[in-house]
Specification:
Shape: globular
Strand order of the largest sheet: 2-1-3-5-4
Number of strands: 5
Strand content: under 5%
Helix content: 55-70%
Largest sheet: 5 strands, mixed
Structural class: mainly alpha
């Protein structure tokens, strides 16, 4: 009975995630058709989110609540963490990718009334599944709700972990896995931001666990047809979840490839029993279901750019326009040139990720995990279910190393490894507890390591200082002015520039969400468009003419970065041309905290 109960919970949670993905996909189809302003489309999408939230609340407060001592303690700890995340979620959006991408692009769709291509923002062509769920709330001006939606995906991932471990061990260990996952610093931080990484993590975890459950179910000899039909649903959910992972973020392509290889490896050993045709068809079905979930995004980009994977693989597929990316370096060269790291520091990077992560510092992976996730791994592989444990660890290992070498190392880029590591951590703690002579030593070590996470959460609360805003003592404008140094300049633009203005953002990190005027920015991190204008200009009037061609009327500039960039990239002659243009055609309108607004005139 326990097996059925927790299997059903895993199934229903994965199904809820797929229904959310389906709601987002329908919104994409409606938005591309010009229905972003349609009340029915927006209400239907919001209703899908609300039903998923109600499902989580029912499971957490009704099905997971147990009055036994240890269960209740773990449940209360989880409730405390979730409460803190929800409180932080009601703060106005201030995280970088909220302001550049995950809320900024939906805001452009809302203003236009449709989903359309944005050539100067190549990342707008990425699959944006969760952003579709955010768009109705941005339209209604409730921009804290997308933060809660992202957190909901994190909370539902906790239920997946709970269901898996409760079935394998018991409910106490299930709650422990939920708590260890949700209390990881990187998860704590992202659960109150309107990002998409927790959505990718949910779909990756659902696909992996459903795949394992399907493989296990297939081992039952000669099951009744009713059971056999239900077992097949695990493969369907795994395929759809893998597709929604790709539809959430480009990193999802790695999730799909690894799961495909896992499935192919496991099925290859069953060829003798099932036959080549049946095994091949099941692998094909998994890939086909993933493609079904992803296909609207591929077709959209194919219609707009001629490249279904734009802005990737433009050399092979072609594509409409420049991707705007900067040429990349390999991992070794990048870390050596940017951070001066030696070969031994680079070689120990897999361990440093867990021990030395720091927020807002790219050299230290721009995030924090916890060494606890790997310290107990050696004990995880004892006892039962060794094959499943090896698959979980293999997924972690392959995803980690592929992610390291395919992209700049960021903690949030590798979040799909955290749920399998949390599961293996619980297995390790369980095995140690069964064999240790003095459990107090284990409890002390665990409490100490979890205390590091508690210190992190406390410091994060102090840094954010939410209480004045949430109590009403601090206005939204005052909070944003305190947290965002460029916000006063954006307020000036919104309140003083004409509605026909078009602003060129220079070294603003593309943080455009709070701008209420039309704008333009470079696709990469640098002022490439301006640099090309200056280098090709014969005199200052050429620069002005080229800015006018793009319809640009104003500049919003981070002064020190622009000055340093131009000083390092212009010849003396080009600097004179720029100086003449700046002196004769730029009028300073506003300056605050290192940011300036200029009007282009003449």
């Amino acid at each position: 009975m326990r097996d059925d109960r927790f299997s059903l919970l895993l199934y229903r949670t994965s199904l809820s995630g797929c229904l959310l993905g389906g709601s987002a996909t329908l919104y994409l189809l409606g938005g591309v058709s010009g229905l972003v302003s349609n009340p029915l489309l927006n209400i239907a999408t919001a209703a899908g989110v609300s039903l998923a939230a109600l499902f989580f609340l029912y499971i957490f407060f009704i099905r997971m609540l147990d009055k036994s001592k240890w269960n209740l303690l773990l449940w209360l700890l989880i409730l405390l963490v979730l409460g803190a995340e929800i409180v932080l979620g009601f703060l106005p959006p201030t995280a970088r990718d909220e302001l550049t991408h995950h809320l900024a692009i939906p805001k452009l769709y809302v203003n236009a009334g449709r989903i359309y291509g944005i050539p100067f923002a190549p990342y707008s062509y990425y699959p944006m599944l969760l952003d579709m769920l955010y768009t109705p709330w941005v339209r209604w001006g409730w921009d804290s709700v997308p933060k809660l939606i992202h957190g909901l995906y994190g909370f539902m991932t906790g239920i997946l972990i709970y269901a898996y471990l409760a079935r394998r061990l018991n409910a106490i260990y299930g709650l422990m896995g939920f708590f260890l996952y949700i209390f990881t610093p990187a998860i704590l931080r992202l659960s109150n931001w309107a990002y998409v990484d927790l959505g990718l993590t949910f779909y990756a975890t659902a696909a992996l666990l459903c795949l394992l459950r399907w493989i296990e179910a297939r081992e039952i000899r000669n099951p009744p047809s009713s059971i056999r039909n239900f077992q097949f649903r695990w493969l369907i959910l795994a395929g759809l979840s893998a597709g929604f992972a790709v539809a959430t973020k480009p990193n999802g392509m790695l999730v799909f490839l690894l799961l495909f290889f896992v499935l192919a490896f496991l099925m290859a050993r069953r060829v003798r029993r099932d036959g080549v045709g049946k095994v091949t068809s099941q692998i094909f079905l998994f890939a086909l279901l993933a493609l079904v979930a992803l296909s609207p995004w591929l077709l959209k980009n194919l219609a707009w750019t001629g490249n279904p994977l734009f802005p990737f693989f433009t050399g092979f597929f072609g594509g409409g326009g420049e991707s705007g990316g900067e040429p990349g370096l390999g991992l070794l060269d990048r870390r050596r040139l940017l951070y001066g790291e030696s070969w031994w520091q680079i070689s120990t990077l897999p361990l440093r990720v867990f021990f030395f992560g720091q927020d807002d510092r790219p050299q230290y992976f721009d995030g924090v995990l916890n060494p606890m996730l790997i310290l107990f791994l050696p004990w995880a592989f004892k006892g039962k279910w060794v094959e499943e444990k090896k698959i979980l660890f293999g997924f972690v290992l392959c995803y980690f190393f592929y992610a390291v070498f395919l992209a700049e190392m960021r903690i949030r880029y590798i979040l799909p490894i955290v749920p399998p590591l949390a599961i293996l951590l619980v297995y390790g703690l369980h095995n140690i507890y069964l064999r240790i002579t003095h459990p107090a030593l284990l409890f002390a070590a665990v409490i100490f390591l979890l205390g590091l996470n508690g210190v992190y959460l406390w410091n994060y609360f102090r840094e954010v200082s939410p209480l004045d805003y949430l109590s009403g003592r601090e206005s939204r404008q005052a909070y944003l002015t305190r947290v965002l140094p460029d916000y006063p300049s954006l307020q000036f633009i919104n309140g003083n520039l004409p509605s026909t203005a078009k602003v060129y953002f220079l070294f603003m990190g593309r943080r455009v969400y709070y701008c209420e005027r039309e704008y333009f920015h470079d696709g990469g991190e640098y002022a490439g468009t301006l640099l090309r204008m200056i280098r090709s200009a014969r005199d200052e009037s050429d620069i002005q003419a080229k800015l006018r061609e793009k319809g640009l009327t104003h500049l919003l500039v981070r002064d020190n970065l622009l000055e340093a960039f131009l000083a390092n990239n212009l010849t003396s002659g080009q600097s004179k041309v720029w100086g003449s243009f700046a002196g004769g055609h730029l009028m300073g309108l506003f300056h605050s905290r290192g940011y300036s607004v200029y009007r282009i005139h003449g």
